[in-house]
């Protein structure tokens, strides 16, 4: 089972002004079962991006360890696809050719690359735009291409760092809906980072709440709406408001920890 386990994970950076240290994460414990959609929510500066970078293998913890399928994460790998806030598409490549990128790295032959790219563009509703360049696409479409690119090389885990934050509200809601559909169809493990409580409650089957810096998981809220499809406007549902309040309360419990941001050394 490709479960993800954070065991007492810390990440301390040297302060940018050269004086002391910044503890971005301290003692993070979290288990994410395979196939789960987990949202990690936390205030600005609580170490959300740091946590995702560690899981992506783009950075290493200064304490504790992260296991994926029982193996410690020691660097980036094709078992994890990452989608960032900025689309990170290559402007000189078409949508299809951008989706093919990861497949090239995997050594997939040309014909299969093309097929897989088109299949995944279809999955995100962009078949008709395969030959368009990023500048010819809207923000939402570009982010869909980025998602298709991450899924095309069939990673076990999809890591998403505030992927919809730069989009307008309507597009964001549409992409949230699409992401849920994608998750149901593909059964991928998805770790989604956001600072937006509504987004967390709407998407997450479990919402892990980080304290203010240094980030630590205070609680994991299980979200179970029963029959989502039966509710026309889930966000207006009283149950949604209750979950929202629960997460909000957890986010506001440990703000005094901000004082610990800089720890002098020596
Ligand atoms: N390379 C670095 N060097 C020094 N400090 C860093 C470094 N990277 C992150 N930090 C600090 O670690 C803390 C957590 O940063 P991080 O970007 O992970 O938070 P975040 O929760 O993603 O914030 P936001 O929601 O604002 O993007 C911040 O105080 C940040 O300044």
TrEMBL record:
Residues 4-237 form the ABC transporter domain. PROSITE patterns: ABC_TRANSPORTER_1, ABC_TRANSPORTER_2. SUPFAM superfamilies: P-loop containing nucleoside triphosphate hydrolases. It comes from the Bacteria. GO terms for molecular function: ATP binding. Keywords: ATP-binding, Nucleotide-binding, Transport. CDD domains: ABC_NrtD_SsuB_transporters. PANTHER family: ALIPHATIC SULFONATES IMPORT ATP-BINDING PROTEIN SSUB, TAURINE IMPORT ATP-BINDING PROTEIN-RELATED. This is ABC transporter ATP-binding protein. It comes from Saccharopolyspora rosea.
């Amino acid at each position: 089972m490709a479960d993800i386990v954070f065991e007492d994970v810390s990440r301390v950076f040297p302060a940018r002004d050269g004086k002391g240290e910044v503890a971005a994460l301290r003692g993070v414990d979290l288990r994410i079962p395979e196939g789960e959609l987990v949202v990690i929510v936390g205030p600005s500066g609580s170490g959300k991006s740091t946590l995702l970078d560690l899981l992506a293998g783009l950075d290493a913890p200064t304490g504790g360890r992260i296991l994926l399928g029982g193996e410690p994460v020691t660097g980036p790998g094709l078992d994890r696809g990452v989608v960032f806030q900025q689309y990170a598409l290559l402007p000189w490549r078409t949508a299809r050719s951008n989706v093919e990128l990861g497949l090239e790295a995997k050594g997939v032959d040309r014909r299969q690359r093309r097929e897989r790219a088109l299949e995944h563009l279809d999955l995100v509703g962009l078949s008709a735009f395969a030959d368009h360049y990023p500048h010819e696409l809207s923000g939402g479409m570009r982010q869909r291409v980025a998602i298709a690119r991450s899924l095309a090389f069939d990673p076990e885990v999809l890591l998403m760092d505030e992927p919809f934050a730069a989009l307008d509200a309507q597009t964001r809601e549409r992409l949230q809906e699409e992401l849920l559909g994608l998750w149901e169809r593909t059964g991928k493990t998805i770790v989604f980072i956001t600072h937006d409580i509504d987004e967390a409650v709407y998407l997450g089957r479990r919402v892990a709440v980080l304290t203010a810096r240094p980030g630590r998981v205070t609680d994991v809220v299980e979200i179970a709406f029963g029959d989502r499809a039966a509710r026309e406007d889930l966000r207006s549902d009283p149950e949604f408001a209750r979950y929202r309040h629960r997460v909000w309360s957890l986010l506001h419990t440990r703000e005094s920890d901000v004082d610990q941001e800089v720890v002098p050394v020596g």
